[in-house]
Protein: Type II asparaginase
Organism: Crenobacter oryzisoli
Amino acid sequence: MMFKPKKLLAATALFAGLLSAPAFALPHVVILATGGTIAGTGATSTTTIGYTAAKLGVDKMIESVPELKQVADVRGEQVAQIASESMTNEVWLKLAKRVNQLLAQKDVDGIVITHGTDTIEETAYFLNLVVKSKKPVVVVGSMRPATAISADGPINLYNAVTLAGSKEAIGKGVLVSLNDQINAAREVTKSNTSTADTFRTPDLGFLGYMQDNKPHFYRMSTRKNTADTEFDVSKLDKLPRVDVVYGYANMDRVAMDADIAAGAKGIVQAGVGDGSIAAQMMPAFRDARKQGVVMVRSSRVGSGIVARNGEANDDKEDLVVSDTLNAQKARILLMLALTKTNDTKDIQRMFYTY
Ligand code: DGL
Protein backbone atom coordinates (compact mmCIF):
# COMPACT_ATOMS: atom_id res chain seq x y z
CA MET A 1 0.00 0.00 0.00
CA MET A 2 1.64 3.26 -1.22
CA PHE A 3 1.29 6.38 1.01
CA LYS A 4 -0.08 9.36 -0.97
CA PRO A 5 2.38 12.41 -0.66
CA LYS A 6 -0.17 14.56 1.28
CA LYS A 7 -0.85 11.81 3.87
CA LEU A 8 2.91 11.16 4.21
CA LEU A 9 3.53 14.87 4.87
CA ALA A 10 0.77 15.00 7.49
CA ALA A 11 2.04 11.86 9.22
CA THR A 12 5.61 13.22 9.34
CA ALA A 13 4.49 16.56 10.78
CA LEU A 14 2.43 14.77 13.45
CA PHE A 15 5.39 12.53 14.41
CA ALA A 16 7.77 15.51 14.54
CA GLY A 17 5.29 17.37 16.72
CA LEU A 18 5.04 14.47 19.14
CA LEU A 19 8.85 14.29 19.35
CA SER A 20 9.24 17.98 20.21
CA ALA A 21 6.42 18.07 22.85
CA PRO A 22 7.76 17.60 26.39
CA ALA A 23 7.20 14.15 27.84
CA PHE A 24 4.62 15.93 30.01
CA ALA A 25 3.70 19.59 30.52
CA LEU A 26 5.12 20.97 33.80
CA PRO A 27 2.60 22.49 36.25
CA HIS A 28 2.55 26.29 36.45
CA VAL A 29 3.40 27.39 40.00
CA VAL A 30 3.62 30.98 41.26
CA ILE A 31 5.75 31.76 44.32
CA LEU A 32 4.46 34.70 46.39
CA ALA A 33 7.22 35.87 48.73
CA THR A 34 6.62 37.67 52.02
CA GLY A 35 10.06 37.49 53.71
CA GLY A 36 11.15 35.47 56.72
CA THR A 37 14.24 33.38 57.42
CA ILE A 38 13.91 31.51 54.13
CA ALA A 39 14.90 34.87 52.62
CA GLY A 40 17.29 35.60 55.47
CA THR A 41 21.06 36.09 55.56
CA GLY A 42 23.55 35.70 58.40
CA ALA A 43 27.02 37.15 58.94
CA THR A 44 28.67 33.73 58.67
CA SER A 45 27.75 30.23 57.47
CA THR A 46 27.36 29.13 61.07
CA THR A 47 24.99 31.94 62.04
CA THR A 48 21.70 30.14 62.69
CA ILE A 49 20.28 32.64 65.17
CA GLY A 50 20.81 36.41 65.23
CA TYR A 51 20.67 36.60 61.39
CA THR A 52 18.51 39.08 59.42
CA ALA A 53 15.24 37.76 58.00
CA ALA A 54 13.61 39.06 54.82
CA LYS A 55 16.70 40.07 52.80
CA LEU A 56 16.65 37.99 49.56
CA GLY A 57 14.10 38.80 46.88
CA VAL A 58 11.92 36.10 45.30
CA ASP A 59 13.89 35.99 42.03
CA LYS A 60 17.12 35.44 43.96
CA MET A 61 15.48 32.61 45.90
CA ILE A 62 14.26 30.97 42.67
CA GLU A 63 17.72 31.37 41.08
CA SER A 64 19.33 29.72 44.12
CA VAL A 65 17.34 26.51 43.51
CA PRO A 66 17.73 25.72 39.77
CA GLU A 67 16.11 22.31 40.36
CA LEU A 68 12.75 24.10 40.67
CA LYS A 69 12.63 24.26 36.88
CA GLN A 70 12.69 20.46 36.69
CA VAL A 71 9.39 20.17 38.58
CA ALA A 72 7.41 23.27 37.58
CA ASP A 73 7.15 26.23 35.28
CA VAL A 74 7.79 28.63 38.17
CA ARG A 75 7.73 32.41 38.54
CA GLY A 76 7.73 34.72 41.53
CA GLU A 77 6.11 37.89 42.90
CA GLN A 78 7.21 39.86 45.97
CA VAL A 79 4.06 40.57 48.03
CA ALA A 80 5.96 41.76 51.13
CA GLN A 81 9.48 41.61 52.57
CA ILE A 82 9.03 41.28 56.35
CA ALA A 83 10.01 39.12 59.26
CA SER A 84 6.74 37.36 60.02
CA GLU A 85 6.46 38.55 63.63
CA SER A 86 5.55 41.81 61.87
CA MET A 87 2.77 40.26 59.76
CA THR A 88 -0.31 42.50 59.47
CA ASN A 89 -3.97 42.18 58.47
CA GLU A 90 -3.18 44.46 55.52
CA VAL A 91 -0.56 42.01 54.16
CA TRP A 92 -2.99 39.12 54.75
CA LEU A 93 -5.72 40.85 52.72
CA LYS A 94 -3.28 41.76 49.92
CA LEU A 95 -1.97 38.18 49.85
CA ALA A 96 -5.45 36.60 49.89
CA LYS A 97 -6.68 38.79 47.03
CA ARG A 98 -3.60 38.02 44.92
CA VAL A 99 -3.88 34.27 45.61
CA ASN A 100 -7.54 34.27 44.53
CA GLN A 101 -6.77 36.33 41.44
CA LEU A 102 -3.98 33.96 40.37
CA LEU A 103 -5.87 30.74 41.12
CA ALA A 104 -8.78 31.95 39.00
CA GLN A 105 -6.39 31.94 36.03
CA LYS A 106 -6.34 28.78 33.87
CA ASP A 107 -2.53 29.10 33.47
CA VAL A 108 -1.87 28.82 37.25
CA ASP A 109 -1.97 25.33 38.79
CA GLY A 110 -0.73 26.07 42.30
CA ILE A 111 0.76 28.66 44.64
CA VAL A 112 3.67 28.63 47.06
CA ILE A 113 3.96 31.31 49.72
CA THR A 114 7.38 31.84 51.30
CA HIS A 115 6.99 33.17 54.83
CA GLY A 116 8.67 33.58 58.20
CA THR A 117 7.99 30.64 60.50
CA ASP A 118 6.89 32.69 63.52
CA THR A 119 3.37 33.34 62.15
CA ILE A 120 3.26 30.84 59.29
CA GLU A 121 0.47 28.91 61.08
CA GLU A 122 -1.68 32.05 61.28
CA THR A 123 -1.26 33.11 57.66
CA ALA A 124 -1.87 29.54 56.51
CA TYR A 125 -5.08 29.27 58.55
CA PHE A 126 -6.29 32.68 57.39
CA LEU A 127 -5.80 31.59 53.76
CA ASN A 128 -7.46 28.24 54.56
CA LEU A 129 -10.61 30.27 55.37
CA VAL A 130 -10.56 32.75 52.46
CA VAL A 131 -9.00 31.06 49.38
CA LYS A 132 -11.79 30.32 46.87
CA SER A 133 -10.17 27.45 44.99
CA LYS A 134 -9.34 23.75 45.40
CA LYS A 135 -5.98 24.29 43.69
CA PRO A 136 -2.96 23.69 45.99
CA VAL A 137 -1.68 26.51 48.19
CA VAL A 138 1.49 25.61 50.12
CA VAL A 139 3.05 27.88 52.75
CA VAL A 140 6.77 27.29 53.34
CA GLY A 141 9.56 28.72 55.45
CA SER A 142 12.87 27.67 56.92
CA MET A 143 14.53 27.58 60.30
CA ARG A 144 18.04 28.41 59.05
CA PRO A 145 18.92 31.42 56.89
CA ALA A 146 19.90 30.96 53.25
CA THR A 147 23.58 31.59 54.13
CA ALA A 148 23.86 28.83 56.76
CA ILE A 149 25.56 25.43 56.42
CA SER A 150 22.77 22.91 55.62
CA ALA A 151 20.24 25.68 55.12
CA ASP A 152 16.80 24.01 55.03
CA GLY A 153 15.24 26.70 52.82
CA PRO A 154 16.27 25.32 49.40
CA ILE A 155 14.94 21.79 49.97
CA ASN A 156 11.83 23.14 51.69
CA LEU A 157 11.19 25.43 48.69
CA TYR A 158 11.83 22.59 46.22
CA ASN A 159 9.39 20.33 48.10
CA ALA A 160 6.79 23.10 48.38
CA VAL A 161 6.86 23.80 44.63
CA THR A 162 6.65 20.06 43.90
CA LEU A 163 3.68 19.76 46.29
CA ALA A 164 1.92 22.85 44.89
CA GLY A 165 2.20 21.43 41.38
CA SER A 166 0.93 17.98 42.36
CA LYS A 167 -2.51 16.52 41.65
CA GLU A 168 -2.45 14.89 45.10
CA ALA A 169 -2.55 18.28 46.87
CA ILE A 170 -5.73 19.39 45.06
CA GLY A 171 -8.65 19.78 47.47
CA LYS A 172 -6.54 19.23 50.62
CA GLY A 173 -6.86 22.81 51.90
CA VAL A 174 -3.92 25.12 52.56
CA LEU A 175 -0.81 23.12 53.46
CA VAL A 176 2.33 23.94 55.46
CA SER A 177 5.32 21.92 54.32
CA LEU A 178 8.81 22.00 55.89
CA ASN A 179 11.21 19.29 57.01
CA ASP A 180 9.88 16.69 54.47
CA GLN A 181 6.45 16.75 56.15
CA ILE A 182 3.01 17.98 55.02
CA ASN A 183 0.79 19.61 57.66
CA ALA A 184 -2.76 20.97 57.46
CA ALA A 185 -3.11 24.71 58.00
CA ARG A 186 -5.88 24.24 60.58
CA GLU A 187 -3.90 22.11 63.03
CA VAL A 188 -0.18 22.84 62.48
CA THR A 189 1.71 24.90 65.05
CA LYS A 190 5.31 25.98 65.69
CA SER A 191 6.41 23.85 68.66
CA ASN A 192 10.11 24.80 69.11
CA THR A 193 11.83 28.18 69.03
CA SER A 194 14.73 27.13 66.79
CA THR A 195 14.94 23.49 65.58
CA ALA A 196 14.26 22.36 61.99
CA ASP A 197 11.52 19.93 63.09
CA THR A 198 9.53 22.64 64.88
CA PHE A 199 6.24 22.30 62.93
CA ARG A 200 3.97 19.76 64.58
CA THR A 201 0.28 18.83 64.56
CA PRO A 202 -0.43 17.95 68.21
CA ASP A 203 -2.31 14.68 68.82
CA LEU A 204 -3.64 14.35 65.25
CA GLY A 205 -0.31 14.28 63.37
CA PHE A 206 0.75 15.58 59.97
CA LEU A 207 -1.00 14.57 56.72
CA GLY A 208 1.95 12.91 54.99
CA TYR A 209 5.49 13.15 53.70
CA MET A 210 7.41 14.77 50.88
CA GLN A 211 9.72 12.00 49.66
CA ASP A 212 11.35 11.02 46.37
CA ASN A 213 10.14 14.22 44.67
CA LYS A 214 6.47 13.60 45.34
CA PRO A 215 3.85 13.89 48.10
CA HIS A 216 2.67 10.86 50.06
CA PHE A 217 -0.65 11.62 51.80
CA TYR A 218 -2.09 9.37 54.55
CA ARG A 219 -4.77 11.66 56.05
CA MET A 220 -6.66 14.85 55.32
CA SER A 221 -8.31 17.53 57.45
CA THR A 222 -12.04 16.94 58.01
CA ARG A 223 -13.07 20.58 58.44
CA LYS A 224 -14.43 22.90 55.71
CA ASN A 225 -11.79 25.02 54.00
CA THR A 226 -10.86 27.02 50.86
CA ALA A 227 -13.42 26.47 48.09
CA ASP A 228 -16.12 25.49 50.65
CA THR A 229 -15.65 28.61 52.78
CA GLU A 230 -18.45 31.10 53.51
CA PHE A 231 -15.95 33.96 54.07
CA ASP A 232 -15.15 36.49 51.35
CA VAL A 233 -12.47 39.16 51.78
CA SER A 234 -12.48 40.37 48.15
CA LYS A 235 -14.19 43.64 49.07
CA LEU A 236 -12.60 44.14 52.51
CA ASP A 237 -9.75 46.53 53.20
CA LYS A 238 -9.64 45.88 56.95
CA LEU A 239 -10.66 43.26 59.51
CA PRO A 240 -12.47 43.70 62.86
CA ARG A 241 -10.17 44.08 65.85
CA VAL A 242 -9.93 40.87 67.90
CA ASP A 243 -7.41 40.48 70.72
CA VAL A 244 -6.06 37.51 72.68
CA VAL A 245 -5.84 37.67 76.46
CA TYR A 246 -3.42 35.18 78.01
CA GLY A 247 -4.62 33.30 81.08
CA TYR A 248 -2.41 32.72 84.15
CA ALA A 249 -2.65 32.47 87.92
CA ASN A 250 -3.61 35.74 89.62
CA MET A 251 -4.56 37.48 86.34
CA ASP A 252 -6.85 40.53 86.43
CA ARG A 253 -9.08 42.38 83.95
CA VAL A 254 -6.74 45.28 83.05
CA ALA A 255 -5.52 43.84 79.73
CA MET A 256 -9.00 42.72 78.60
CA ASP A 257 -10.56 46.10 79.50
CA ALA A 258 -7.78 47.89 77.60
CA ASP A 259 -8.36 45.76 74.48
CA ILE A 260 -12.07 46.51 74.55
CA ALA A 261 -11.43 50.23 75.15
CA ALA A 262 -9.16 50.10 72.06
CA GLY A 263 -12.10 48.84 69.99
CA ALA A 264 -11.89 45.05 70.15
CA LYS A 265 -15.11 43.52 68.77
CA GLY A 266 -14.03 40.10 69.99
CA ILE A 267 -11.77 38.65 72.67
CA VAL A 268 -10.18 35.20 72.71
CA GLN A 269 -8.96 34.05 76.09
CA ALA A 270 -6.00 31.63 75.94
CA GLY A 271 -7.22 30.21 79.21
CA VAL A 272 -5.54 27.82 81.61
CA GLY A 273 -6.57 24.18 81.28
CA ASP A 274 -9.84 23.57 79.46
CA GLY A 275 -10.25 27.28 78.78
CA SER A 276 -11.15 28.07 82.42
CA ILE A 277 -12.23 31.56 83.49
CA ALA A 278 -10.84 32.77 86.84
CA ALA A 279 -13.54 33.89 89.32
CA GLN A 280 -12.08 37.40 89.36
CA MET A 281 -12.41 37.58 85.54
CA MET A 282 -16.11 36.69 85.32
CA PRO A 283 -17.31 40.32 85.84
CA ALA A 284 -15.04 41.42 82.96
CA PHE A 285 -16.53 38.73 80.67
CA ARG A 286 -20.06 39.83 81.63
CA ASP A 287 -19.29 43.52 81.07
CA ALA A 288 -17.80 42.66 77.67
CA ARG A 289 -20.92 40.76 76.65
CA LYS A 290 -23.08 43.70 77.75
CA GLN A 291 -21.04 45.83 75.29
CA GLY A 292 -21.69 43.26 72.53
CA VAL A 293 -18.09 41.99 72.49
CA VAL A 294 -17.99 38.32 71.42
CA MET A 295 -16.02 36.23 73.92
CA VAL A 296 -14.30 32.97 72.91
CA ARG A 297 -12.85 30.48 75.37
CA SER A 298 -9.68 28.89 73.99
CA SER A 299 -6.78 27.31 75.86
CA ARG A 300 -3.06 27.99 76.39
CA VAL A 301 -2.48 24.24 76.77
CA GLY A 302 -1.78 23.53 73.07
CA SER A 303 -3.99 20.51 72.33
CA GLY A 304 -7.44 19.04 73.05
CA ILE A 305 -11.04 20.18 72.79
CA VAL A 306 -12.35 23.23 74.68
CA ALA A 307 -15.93 21.99 75.12
CA ARG A 308 -19.12 23.99 75.71
CA ASN A 309 -20.37 24.19 79.32
CA GLY A 310 -17.24 22.43 80.60
CA GLU A 311 -15.23 24.92 82.67
CA ALA A 312 -17.86 27.69 82.28
CA ASN A 313 -21.63 27.91 81.78
CA ASP A 314 -21.34 29.05 78.15
CA ASP A 315 -25.07 28.83 77.53
CA LYS A 316 -25.85 31.10 80.50
CA GLU A 317 -22.92 33.53 79.93
CA ASP A 318 -23.46 33.52 76.11
CA LEU A 319 -19.85 32.55 75.35
CA VAL A 320 -18.30 30.72 72.37
CA VAL A 321 -15.77 27.87 72.66
CA SER A 322 -12.85 27.38 70.23
CA ASP A 323 -13.18 23.56 69.91
CA THR A 324 -9.58 22.50 69.10
CA LEU A 325 -8.34 25.82 67.67
CA ASN A 326 -5.49 27.39 69.63
CA ALA A 327 -5.93 31.03 70.64
CA GLN A 328 -4.04 32.58 67.73
CA LYS A 329 -6.13 30.60 65.22
CA ALA A 330 -9.39 31.14 67.11
CA ARG A 331 -8.64 34.88 66.79
CA ILE A 332 -8.46 34.54 62.98
CA LEU A 333 -11.73 32.63 62.70
CA LEU A 334 -13.45 35.11 65.06
CA MET A 335 -12.18 38.09 62.98
CA LEU A 336 -13.67 36.56 59.82
CA ALA A 337 -16.86 35.51 61.62
CA LEU A 338 -17.35 39.13 62.76
CA THR A 339 -17.24 40.28 59.12
CA LYS A 340 -20.54 38.37 58.73
CA THR A 341 -22.31 38.31 62.12
CA ASN A 342 -22.05 38.89 65.87
CA ASP A 343 -24.66 36.25 66.64
CA THR A 344 -22.91 33.91 69.11
CA LYS A 345 -24.91 30.83 68.04
CA ASP A 346 -23.92 31.32 64.40
CA ILE A 347 -20.31 31.98 65.41
CA GLN A 348 -20.28 28.79 67.49
CA ARG A 349 -21.48 26.93 64.36
CA MET A 350 -18.50 28.37 62.48
CA PHE A 351 -16.09 27.08 65.15
CA TYR A 352 -17.59 23.59 64.69
CA THR A 353 -17.42 23.89 60.88
CA TYR A 354 -13.93 25.24 60.08
N1 DGL B 1 11.85 36.48 62.37
C1 DGL B 1 11.28 35.15 62.21
C2 DGL B 1 10.20 35.17 61.12
O1 DGL B 1 10.37 35.89 60.14
C3 DGL B 1 12.33 34.18 61.83
C4 DGL B 1 11.86 32.80 61.91
C5 DGL B 1 11.80 32.13 60.56
O2 DGL B 1 11.36 32.71 59.53
O3 DGL B 1 12.19 30.94 60.56
O4 DGL B 1 9.21 34.44 61.27
Notes: Residues 36-37, 53, 83-85, 116-118, 141-143 surround D-glutamic acid (CB under 6 Å). The chain has two domains: 28-228, 242-353.
